[in-house]
Phosphoadenosine phosphosulphate reductase domain-containing protein
Amino acid sequence: MSQKVRHVLGISGGKDSAALAIYMKDNYPELDIEYYTADTGEELQETYDLVTRLEVYLGKPIIRLTHSKDTENHQLGPFELLYKSKFKYLPSTQSRWCTQYLKLRPFEMFIGNDPVVSYVGIRGDEEREGYISKKSNIQSIFPFRKNIWSEDVTTKVLANDNIKQLLGTIEAGEVTVDDEFREIIAEPLSLRFSAKKKLDLLLNADTKAFNQLVFSYLKTTRYPLSQVDSFPVVADTKVSVKEDIFALLRTSGVGIPKYYEELEFEVDGEKGTYSRSRSGCYFCFFQQKIEWVWLYEQHPELFEKAGKYEKEGYTWSERESLTELMKPERIEQIKREYIQKQKKRVEQSANSSPFLMDKFLDEDDQQGCAACFI
Ligand code: SF4
């Protein structure tokens, strides 16, 4: 007997996962989605506020996952407990124990061995795949993209030894396609005809037919979606980009996380703006120098708390300690450099987006950790 397939959506505290939760509730109320957030205990208050507002909109609780609890004295948060009792050194881009232990493990424990469809908020204007669990009982779906399937699925579907099966599905009338679509399916991959090219051609020819064909193929596999009779997302042809995400957050009333708000600063009579570009822990080592300045000026108590973790040889920010970074002349220098960077970016993207915020977020959005920032 097949197991019940669970549908889950992780809320990182960032704009894209929040917008995806709103999108799924609005468009697919028939899917019983379990919303969860993995709390490190070190998020910004703005993140916790966003989760609370989202719960109101969704009309159901967002499940809080934690790695471990301080059952002895109830004073240490999950990150602190792990840091003090196990690792004793700061996480970094080379040693990402925080993501592993505080985000991914709690998620994998939450779903256990159940077949799971996990919805991921990577946008249609991004070129990345995001966190894909190695566990075979988890299948990722990307509703904001034109290609809603993960790379492992499309690679299998488009393999040359699968062409006969796909054509058979079409001949059997399970999926209706036109001649052009059938011809693309029939053409084998080669050095001149890559899987990426074939995928793009099929999606452009008929997204819905391609999705139905993939769904039909999945029935012959052990992927979680092989166990459901229907999957409404296969009919979804909308591609959502950054401005759609901001629009969803605004119109739903959930609002944009407050840390994205651009705040003005001045140095040498020149004005610039700064904000935090993503969710995640306030001390995250992925943040840029200007974000550390933002933290120092907007949340001095958190900056101080982050500084207390630093020891000789272990700093959050590359090549300098927070004590060095908070010196007035260093802060001015970071701001000065950032103003120049902003000017350059505005010039470069002057014709590409009418939204001022896009000009400042694009670069940062592509970096870091999909489990923490989407
Ligand atoms: S936000 Fe940064 S510090 Fe926090 S868990 Fe993710 S990678 Fe680690």
About this structure: The two ends are 35 Å apart (CA to CA). The chain has three domains: 6-149+236-252, 153-234, 258-373. Strands lie at 6-10, 33-38, 63-65, 116-119, 138-141, 263-267, 270-274. The domain at 6-149+236-252 is CATH 3.40.50.620 (Rossmann fold).
